[in-house]
Design brief:
The complex is a heterodimer. Chain A has four domains: about 170 residues, Aldehyde Oxidoreductase, domain 4 (2-Layer Sandwich), CATH 3.30.365; about 180 residues, Aldehyde Oxidoreductase, domain 3; about 325 residues, Aldehyde Oxidoreductase, domain 4, CATH 3.30.365.10; about 35 residues, no CATH class. In chain A, a hairpin with a 2-residue loop joins strand 24 and strand 25. Chain A is about 25% helix and about 25% strand. An eight-stranded mixed sheet of chain A has the order 3-7-1-14-11-12-13-22, sandwiched between helices. In chain A, strands 9-17-16-15-10 form a five-stranded mixed sheet, with helices on both faces. A four-stranded mixed sheet of chain A has the order 18-29-30-31, sandwiched between helices. Chain B is of the alpha+beta class. Chain B folds into three domains: about 45 residues, Uridine Diphospho-n-acetylenolpyruvylglucosamine Reductase, domain 2, CATH 3.30.43; about 110 residues, 2-Layer Sandwich (Uridine Diphospho-n-acetylenolpyruvylglucosamine Reductase, domain 3); about 90 residues, Enolase-like, domain 1 (2-Layer Sandwich). In chain B, strands 4-5-10-6-7 form a five-stranded antiparallel sheet. A four-stranded antiparallel sheet of chain B has the order 11-12-13-14, sandwiched between helices. In chain B, a hairpin with a 2-residue loop joins strand 12 and strand 13. In chain B, helix 5 packs antiparallel against helix 8 and helix 10 packs across helix 11. The radius of gyration of chain B is 18 Å and the shape is globular. The relative contact order of chain B is 0.12. Classes of the chains: A alpha+beta, B alpha+beta.
Chain lengths: ~850, ~270
Amino acid sequence: MSDRLRTVGADVPRVETVEKLTGDALYTGDLLLPGMLHAKVKHSPHARARILRIDTARAEALPGVRAVLTGHELDYRIGLYVVDKDILAKDVVRHFGEAVAAVAADTPEIAGEAVGLIEVEYDVLTPVLDPMAAIRDDAPLVHPDLGSYAYVEAAFSPQPGTNIAHRQLVRKGDLDRGFAEAEWIVEREYTNPSVQHVPLETHVVVVQWKAGDQVTIWTSAQSPFTVRNLFCTALRLPLNQVRVVVPHVGGGFGGKAGIHLEPLVACLSRKAGGRPVRLQATREEEFSLLPCRSALTYRIRTGVRSDGTITAQQMTMYWDAGAYADYAVNVTRASAYSSGGPYDIPNAAVDAYAIYTNKPYGTAYRGFGHVEFFWGLERHMELVAQAIGMDSLEFRRRNLLRPGSLTLTGERITEHTGDPRACLDAVAEAIDYGRLTAAEAEHERTTGRKVGKGVATLHKAPAMPSFTATAAVVKMNSDASVVVNIALMEIGQGCDTALAQIVAERLRFPVERVKVAVERDTDKDPYDWQTVASKGLILSGNACLLACDDLLRQAYEVAGQALRANVVDLDHDADRVFVAHRPEESVTFAELSIGYAFPNGNGIGGPLVGVGRYIAQGLTNLDKETGQGLPALDWTYGAHGVVVDVDPETGEFDVLAISSAYDVGRVVNPGLVRGQAIGGMVQGLGTALCEGYIYDQQGRLLNPSFTDNKIPTARDIPARIDSAVVETAQLDGPFGARGVGEHPMISVAPAIGNAIQHATGAELLHMPMRFEDVWRALRSHDPIDNWITETPVGSCRSDLPGGDATVHPADAVAHPGSTHTPEVALP
Amino acid sequence: MAARFGYRAPRRREELLALLGEYGERARVLAGGTDLLGDVRSGLAHPEVMVDLKRVEGYRELGWSADDGLLIRPGVTINDLLGDDRVRASYPLLAACAQDLASHQIRNRATVIGNVVNASPCADLSPALLCLGAHAVLSSQEGRREVPFTEFFTGAKRTVLRTGELLEEVVVPPAGADARGSYHKLKRIKGHDLGIVGVAALAEDGALRLGISSCAPTPLLVDGLSTHDPVDEVVAAARAAISPISDVRCTKEYRTHMVGVYVRRALEEVA
């Protein structure tokens, strides 16, 4: 099949490249509407407090202010899976940075000034910050009314009277018997803090609530239909009165899935008499008004025989949902059924909890939990191998899934599922695993640094409803070019290019004749669930194929009449439909495109519009007690291999090389795969090295900006960064392809941790691995626990000059956190 | 949140000093703005008037003299300094510190004097200026005075500058031909970052000086050392001088350790 493919597999340049490079591409933030107002948000400076009083009188009196909103005016609640969030805080605030009021005004400056004039009186309460403390019986409840909230009952199990937003159980085999068969039992706990997505484009929304409750929302969202559905559910509006339009999006990474600022801005527009209102989050707001990635504590207990065979594994996940359930409950669910990794574990138990705390809430983030738990899992595999005295690569190979294996939920792996072994072997070979090259040995001699190599595996399936669906429409123009309408968003991943290639391949057209319409519009485009989960290529790819088939069927039908031929005898090339055994008998696509006209003027057919509908098939809900069922549309396997050098004196390290391999089924576009791979690995590097939310004891975020939340820069990209592919065709994937959007970010961190351990012996259990963490691990010092820090703010020694110069009386209105940054944090 | 402030951009230094005298504490001097504008945006600074010095005649020039050495005026950006061949040849330590300051874009904008006068404990240029024996020339309508950098910083973000006074010149004495310097800066990433620990060292005629940042409320100088001193004594002297804190960037233990490591490495390079 492969040698017959012309467009699929070709290194087609991204279709939107020129538009983006020239600055012509328009984003939501570029939108200017007549009479448009600008919104600003008043944030809570406290993590947990009762709101005693909000006085908006001075703000309302400010000239240029058109609307001021507080929570009590809004009788709506929002939630993806657990409906637990007010549009503006009512009576209580549940996290630092939470919205308590908002203003729409003629200019952003006036709106900001008005926000400063809003007075809020709080009764500050002790926050629940540590998820492990939040599940104790005596913990205060973040949501005392949890039992009254609506939730998606087929998939989730909130525990009223506790802080547990969801509990996911998975049971496979007989755990006690498995541990009884084990010769070794290794138990460890792995942790990581919350992190921020930091898309280049911060969240931005423009909403106009027009007369007759006709609402138009322009938003930087990953999923226009999900915005519309959740909005209409919360605001109790019919779907056909709400239109969601999404132009180009400047990066999502999960942070723009679901619904965010849209309801607030809509309510401001309504209160402002229907004038359009624009709100763009500041970078600081991205850190605490908008959600983050959940922190995780992952405890793993593994039974293993001396020959390296895993006999049992008990896994307990404590996910820090933060103040609202949002996606964290589904991260918990998806991580639970994936939590064993691509390994054959005959006897397993998973208990995963999503726990409410008084912190900014967790949402989807590239990898959907897998980056976090693979940190623990693949560090754990290293430590188990070390405990039994086995090389960790060999240990992994011995336990990998293979055809016939059963996953944790009872899915049988086949030869078509994918090949984790090939991925692992590819990266091990790429980094010369297990030995130092002559150059590396020389590097050790000349620098005094220690070189180490590590590998880690990964897998992920799309986390989505069992009946996730999408559709595509392919419309032919009168010159036989086509326009494709979909609602899957191009957010940088390259779906427009890949789908254009798939359409071009199926129609046998050159890719230049295929255009995927840029701006997605719920009034005009066919439904798509969401742009998440690495599911776009399979679902939308299949929908596009079906739409092409539908269009060709229409074309053949008309061509059959035009040529007086039986449809079964027809064939086509890029330009014409012809009779297979008499190719000179033909009609062009251009002639068929908007209806065929006979020489005498009679018309037949009509515009060619292909519609393709696709829905995930055969998937099931998971049993609530055992987790058994079929949740996975497909599994993408992969592996990372890393070479580091470590300064044993300081703990500083340098990632010299990252190699990767993913079983993508079929490469649709090698440039796009490489782009996803490198981007994901660099994002994984940030998570591995330096990113993480740091709170003080009051739950205030201490690093809500790039001053102290560093992310990798161009200089941090390793000198060598490779991506390889394995192609085990996905039977139901378009041309055999499966998704690889999230996977490159997964398991970069544990591969680095394993390499550091190989180099120095440092046993790291916490991610990120800052230089000081490595230094401490090398000296068996207690790890730093500064993610909820006990260090007093601005603790310069008070007996020294300037020791009292550390508290800045400042206005935290516009930028929560700025007043609480320690003195030395100021550049 | 938006801030309202007046803006003045005098062309002559007398005008500038008069404005500073007139507005006193209500004025802030604007040079590159890379610290000040951030502070205004965060609500940490509330100037009534910003007095922009970038248009003052001669302020963007470097001065040279055989006796005084290098004279840096208030408009000189970090990249101006780095782009000057004489600076790179005569003051490699200063250039090394400047090269590690933020990113190229910030260095286009940020000034040398702004970096110093901001009096951040983690300022990149201060360790070098301390090692090089530089002094500050402070000007006001009342006149001018000279203050060595060892006496310039009085605390975190605090200096001896009086109301109405401008740090108008940084004077770096001529460096000896045999002077050798080194700068070590601990960062969290390879890209631009503030110094978590910074150690500059300068050896000249057997004398050894250490300039240390991010380890006390002010950048500090450890003086009176010799390149012949035992390494452990030099490390001990450095550790005795610092008073590091634990913060979101690292713990005081690690800062203390890294000062020792960097001092040892610096000695290997300069002694």
